[in-house]
Amino acid sequence: MMNGQQGQQVWDTREVAPGTYLVQYLGGSGVLYSEKLIIQQ
After folding, report:
1. How many whole angstroms separate alpha carbon 12 and alpha carbon 37?
2. CB within 8 A of 9, min separation 6: which ones?
3. Which of 15, 23, 24, 26 has a Cα at 20 to 30 A from 7?
4. What is the pLDDT of residues 5-22, one digit of tens each?
């Protein structure tokens, strides 16, 4: 969970399959931010 004006979210991707993912941060009014995340082996 992110708190305050600035925050950090950590995702342990060691067991996530390689590929391209869409990461979205959601707030009360919907999507606040979206970004593409590429995981490689």
Report:
1. 13
2. 1, 2, 25
3. 15
4. 566 778 888 999 999 999
